[in-house]
């Protein structure tokens, strides 16, 4: 029998009615002849309740106990889903992470899946079981203790099972009906994509389209697992949702597939620093140690014989999440006091936003950057920082122009047309 | 280090404050030099919530899924208790049943503990851990699935751990402060017992003094585990609660230790049945198959050549829980229709109560029964059925006299005096 993995997030199993509705979708796939592995999250709200208790009991908690406590939410859903399916006459049973076992590293709270033996579940499929319901987000460490994969880890569980069981597809049921060309709240012209390449999804996910956890997309890409994102609140249909797949499986790639944005950016500029080998390391080393996630980096052209500096001087600009601005300032000022770096002034701009265009077609189409800059220029929007990758161009602009920029770029790249 | 087992029931760990209070009691014992094994129940209300979900999802549920779901409540408490102890600077960690592992039979929902290997936890004690917090009520079957021991199973878990680890004592923390000579709601003269023998506790427990689960007392008796029942809501003290122990450890046994009662009784009489070998089996076989818990049984003296009966005839009276009366009637009438038994009439009396006096001293003191009957006679209370064991005399009386009977017997046997 072909195998299908179906994952239901917290809102899709929020109560017994929704579990019953999800079970009906599972039954549909069983009816098509699939052996189904269902991955479930905790009923929405349950994980937060457990996390709240942990934090109240022990603010600097032992992560091993945190995992043992928090994983219980998924176990409850798994059992309830198995019972619901049995009620519908479908042979089903639940598995907790340690029962499979989902072998992970010992990094409690953020463990990585190392191996998922398939023999145990496959034996049951051989004996006539039709659905294995597995508690997502959890595993077991080499020491025999319960681990969790971190928030959103159920997506990763689902993809890992799809890889281990060579599933035909991994369907991620969530509360949105797919991946859009941009945020529909910003332009009503936003269009649901039928297909998107792994690489594009990664860029969109890390830019704020929080449909799929980044790690799960990486894993899907590595093992070439076909991922489908779809809503559990829509009527079932064969072309529902968005398929996230390898580039080769998309007949005609879009030059640009989507416009992403992030409001939560801060721009930091170190004014007048010595321009010498190792200077970048001496700046970004302390930032990394302080846990600052630096995103875009721009270094100005060098100026020689600047006042009070022996060699050449330059400016360095970078962006980071806005809530890490204070931490970044502290780390840089401390490094200055210790004599590790030398700058005249540190300027912070917290009124910026990042807008990006993403598309694998960019690789073979020149002129995307030029067009983007022209569109923004026509709207009178000044670009503060530019960063590019193979399939993405990002700019930092004044936050007040963000919506305008997204709308203009969405129009200019014809993203409302299939 | 000597080992102590401490068990906290649902009301003793009902919320984070109570878990913190329980943890303080654990800390006291650690301070005395004990290695402590803490057995915890689910936070009160949690198990009922989970059971409710199971019943709503699948009325005739798969008991294996029931166990997987319902056991999660204890896991949460175990983790929170371990965290709380760590916060107090006490090295502690949690164990779920399968991690110890608590090996049980496969009788899901009512599994029996078969083995508790001590090496895993003892190794940690050797490495400096002071408290092992174990989720009560659960274990793992030979098939690797989660089992539960049935309601109240956490008491049994505690005693089984005390036996496996040769603990000095097993303290059961609950919401009552010990075992009383009778129900204090019936007479204010009821007195807390300092000590009680296992056998007496068993008679009191099965008679309705729901302080300790019967199975846990049986297990304690078999392995000679000293059990102490005490309240988690009282100030700690060395002579708190009631010690349940072997007869030999009680210096001077009371002739009578307590007066127990049960309101929930029904008296059933089969009038005019054939008195021949095997007749008792033919009556109580169908009752047992129908799940009726028959308690007291009395057979009248035989009468020969009674109208319409070839051989001798007799009457048979028995008592059972009042909510099983209909089931008993149905089973007996069906057996009559099938020709398995022959009786003229089935009479049911649901206005009865059972009152018992219990005491190991009875074995060596004659006259307890005579005194009991005299006391009841003096109060004008008619006795309907009498049943005796080595350490207990029970009578069935009209329910309206129950309180009076308990009070009169409590006075007559001087139970208010130490």
Write a brief structural summary.
The structure is a homodimer of 418-residue chains. Chain A has 12 helices and 18 strands.
Query: How many DSSP E strands of chain A?
Result: 18
* Strand order, sheet with most strands of chain A: 3-6-2-1-9-11-12-10
Helix/strand-derived category of chain A reads alpha/beta
**SSE order of chain A in H/E notation?**
EHEHHHEEEHEEEHEEHHEEEHEEHEHEEH
| Name given to the CATH architecture of the largest domain in chain A | 3-Layer(aba) Sandwich
What kind of sheet is the major sheet of chain A?
8 strands, mixed
CATH topology of the largest domain in chain A: Carbamate kinase
Give structural notes.
The structure is a homodimer of 418-residue chains. The first copy, chain A, has 418 residues and is an alpha/beta fold. Chain A has helices at residues 16-31, 46-57, 63-70, 72-87, 119-126, 153-164, 198-206, 214-223, 279-289, 325-337, 368-378, 402-412; strands at residues 3-8, 35-40, 92-95, 103-104, 113-115, 131-135, 138-140, 146-148, 169-174, 195-197, 227-231, 242-245, 258-274, 297-299, 313-321, 343-358, 383-389, 392-398. In chain A, helix 1 (16-31) packs across helix 4 (72-87). The longest helix of chain A is centred in the first third of the chain and has 16 residues, at 16-31. The model of chain A has no long low-confidence stretch (mean pLDDT 91). The interface between A and B is medium-sized, with 35 and 35 residues. Chains A, B: ATP binds at residues 7-10, 174-175, 180, 185, 210-211. Chains A, B: Its EC number is 2.7.2.4. Chains A, B: One of its GO terms (molecular function) is ATP binding.
